[in-house]
Amino acid sequence: SKATVSVLNCGFAVTPPTMARRPAASVLGELHWRSGASLAADIGAGRVTSTAALEAFISRVEAFDGKVNAVVVKDYARARARAAEADAALERGERWGPLHGVPMTVKENNDVEGLVSSCGYAMLKGNVALAHSEAVQRLVDAGAVIFGKTNLPVGINDVQSFNPVYGCTSNPYDAARTPGGSSGGSAAALAAGLCPLELGGDIGGSIRTPAHCCGLWGLKPTYGLISTRGGKCVLPDAPVSFADSTGFTPLDLVVKGPLARYPEDLALLLDVLAGPGGAERRGWTLSLPRPAAKPLSEYRVAVWGDDALCPVDSDVKTAVSKVVAVLKAHNAVVDEAARPPFTAAEMFDTYLQLLAAAENCGLGAEDAAAAFAAADGAAGAGDAARQARWIGQRHHAWFAAHKRRLLFCEQMEAFFKEYDFVIMPICASTAWPHDHSGPNDQPFWKVGDRVIHGADGQATPYHKQVYWAALATLCYLPSVTFPTGRAASNGMPVGLQAIGAKYMDHACITFADVLAQAGGSAFQFAPPAGYV
Questions:
Q1: Is the separation of the CB atoms in 527 and 23 below 8 Å?
Q2: Secondary structure of 422-468 in the HEC alphabet?
Q3: Annotated catalytic, 206?
Q4: Catalytic residue flag (residue 107)
Q5: What is this structure's pTM?
Q6: Which position among 74, 107, 232, 256 bears the catalytic label?
Q7: CA 59, 179, 211 angle in degrees (round to 5)?
Q8: pLDDT in tens, 1-38
């Protein structure tokens, strides 16, 4: 069957919602708020059929997606056939895997055989995938029933989610605000109860920012842990794809990872998705550490709660203070002054230099020549001049930055011998009002005029908001986003991130879960008003 496309325009104002209580989700009528793990268990035990679960989510999409425009590619007919196959298989005693029969959606740039992968480019709206990406194939092999794809910004290149192919996605907690990006459709779909699980991606907070904006859990995994082969588009004149769908060396900094409403679902999807891809499967296997949960009093936690390079507003400061209070109340070792030996400026500049290279690796010959000329002519120490030099940098300049990155990685490894985790903000403010003023000439990482407005009149330059995403991305570290409640200024969700040592992804999930349980209901997902 052909996929269908929905389009919604943004720009209308609504009143910020009030705090909603998490529903019990014990009957089929509340199935849309279930965790993916519990839904998989119920399908496997015969308490709910895959077909019934799928129809429940399709009904939610048809009833509620008009408000948010999250699920923009729909594949209902094939999903219904696969759900029926999943039910029949269980009757025969066959179980495909840990996601047997569980309906879910994936971000639009993930290749699903037979569906469009446009990355929001009008020129690619007819680009139909010939095969699953490796990550999608893992989901399918585990038994998932993929019934749609979710929205994203043009070129996966913004911290909002709008494009000329599918239109704009809104935040379920306030439709006048963005759900974040680039996995904004993923987050909006989860928060609105349109799906139980999602697959996103991250290079500049693209999992973490939407999870923060929509009160969710998200995992930016250790770099290289989940295959990125497939799932992004190749521009017609570009010799290299954005995420290397050709199956060779993956693009620097980019990861794929899960978003969910509950931490157990991050662990479930991590186990499904993680592992070698392509030729690497011949040579190595994966064995991630899986430490057991322990009392907060046994954790050593560094807190990097604010920074002059990207100051956070009062809503985020309050969230950090709440987390510190919970940790201290449970006798955790908390150090709010702990920092790695490199400076924040060194770290951020190195990240921005490598990010500029990654974001521009697919330039055609004409654009590359212009970038080299601009780099050679850029003088001074200002942000715009440095960025021009980084966009057109030669390999020796990139390699010097890479060597600094490797040193920072070693220093973070030493840091995590003294501390188990570091807690940091994700953004300088809560989700901000839609701003479509400069998506083409100013993507999320580029110097320009766009500003993100927070509480207390705070204004963060658009290109500076990736500061809080930089450390984990630059140093290949896992980071788990977790909710901390709603902001006093506007009622929007506020999330923070717990970053750990490389390959301690499960440990990050477990720690954040223990912390959230200690923090009480404010640290749990709460559905937006009007969607319960």
A1: yes
A2: EEEECCCCCCCECCCCCCCCCCCCCCCCCEEECHHHCEEEHHHCCHH
A3: yes
A4: yes
A5: 0.93
A6: 107
A7: 95
A8: 444 443 333 432 322 222 233 444 443 348 999 999 99
